[in-house]
Each structure stands twice: as structure tokens, then as C-alpha cells.
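Async update (no meeting this week)

Hi team, since we skipped the sync, here's where things stand on the single-chain job. The sequence we agreed to prioritize is pasted below, unchanged from the tracker. I ran it this morning and attached the output directly underneath so nobody has to dig for it. Comments welcome in thread, and please keep replies under the output.
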Amino acid sequence: MNPFSNIWNHPKTSVTGLLIALVTIGGVLSQQGVTLGNAGSGTVVTLVSAIATALLGLLARDPESATSPVGSSAKLGAWALIALLLPLPFLGGCSGSTVAQDIVNWTPSLQSAVATVDSTAALLAPQDAPVFTAATIGFDAASNLLDTQAKAYLANPSATLLAQLQTQIVALQQQVNAALLQSAKIANPASQQHALSAIQAVATIVTALVALVQSVSTRAAVAQMAAESTVKMAAVRPYLNENHAAEIVAAHYSEPVEVARMQVAEAEVNEAQAGF
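Output:
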């Protein structure tokens, strides 16, 4: 069979194969230490791998793909171009003051998510509420302290205040990750779903904030942050909903969900490779 006509006649399969190949090659290159240059706080290899992964998810969810494969492929290409041309809000090379302002801008969403967590215990089965409350009890204090430190850093960017931000965002991330693992142990399916969904919103915002702080931190500082992260992202990823995460980021930055999904994927790849 002519390979070129096969590509034309089966565009969805061809695009899928290409994306899988990109992800596979990207993984091999990363293991070998090949970066192909920097892209924001990450590398070109991780960026391409993250975009390919996100597009695979988009392709699998496209309701038009079965009836209009050519249109679906064109849509994938358009989103890929958008992802490459638009700046990634919480991943680009930002100044310390810009990052501090973005953290402050996230504060209302973070506090709203934490408030939802506080009210979620009432929705759980009586035997599950104490477990959830104990797992999330530190969210309020940790998020408020992070907001205070971000505002202080915004007013006076300095190495000392940045170090405080680095320490606090890791502390909050660890609280959230530990809470996810504890909530995943809840046996009642309805209670578990309520608990994980509430914590997921906080986890998504914290991941964005870690990426922001990471983007203005030195490699040594990022390594120290990662060393303090004992509950890794890989352990909690099975309990996260990528669609929910993309919707939160898209709403915050007023952008398409598909673009937000790529940003979330890249942030997770960068943080995992950094050791979080």
C-alpha cells in the first residue's frame, strides 16, 4: 500500500501514530539528557512531549472524529499551532514581580477552593467526615500564609522573600498531596468522590503556583524544593481529573480548555522531571 495515500485516507490513525511516536521519542531523549534547548522553565523536548500527550487526549475526546476525520485532524493542527504561539501564562520566563502578581491573582480562586473543602465534610458519610477534616485541616492557614508572602514579595522582590515563597508553596503542596492520599482511602464511593473533587481544585491551583515559583527559581533552589517534596506527584496523579484541572486553568486565564490542558500537562511534566 502507498504510505502517502494511506496517511491521506486515514488521517486520525496517522495523527495518533505520530503523536505516540513524539511522546515515545521525547521520553527516550529525556532519559538520555537531550533537551534541544530551553522552553520557558522546561525544555523543548518536554514541551513537545506534553503537547503531544495533550493532543492525544483531545483526539480521543473529539466527538466529530468518527464522522469528520479530516476536520478533526485540522482542529488538532490548529490547537497545536495555538499552543506554540500563545505564551503559557504560568510557564513562561517571568520576572519575580510578575510571578508574585500572578500568585496574588490566584488567591481568590485558592481561597474559594479551600472554602469548598471546609464545607465538604458536611456532604460526607458520618464515619468519613473526621478523616477528611483531619487531612485538610491545615489548608486555611497554609493558603493564607502563601497569600501574605506573595503580597510581600510583590511589594519588595528579594531573594529572602522568594525563599519564603519556595518553602511555603512546597509545604502547601505536601499538605494537599497527603490529603489526596488520605481521602483516596475513604471506602464510601460517594464520600470519596466528594472529597477528591474538593481537594482536586486546590491541587490544581497549587500545581500552577509551584510552576510559577519554579519559573523564577535557580536550579539549586528547585532541587531543594523537590527534596522537600516527599509525597510526589506520581503518587497522587491517579486521583486527579485532568479535565477538571484544565477547566480551572482555562477559567482563570480566560483561554480555551484545550490550551489549558496543554499547559497543565507541561507543568506536570516539568515538575515531575524536577523531582516533585
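Quick observations from my side:
Residues 189-215 form the longest helix (27 residues).
The mean pLDDT is 78.
Reply here if anything looks off.
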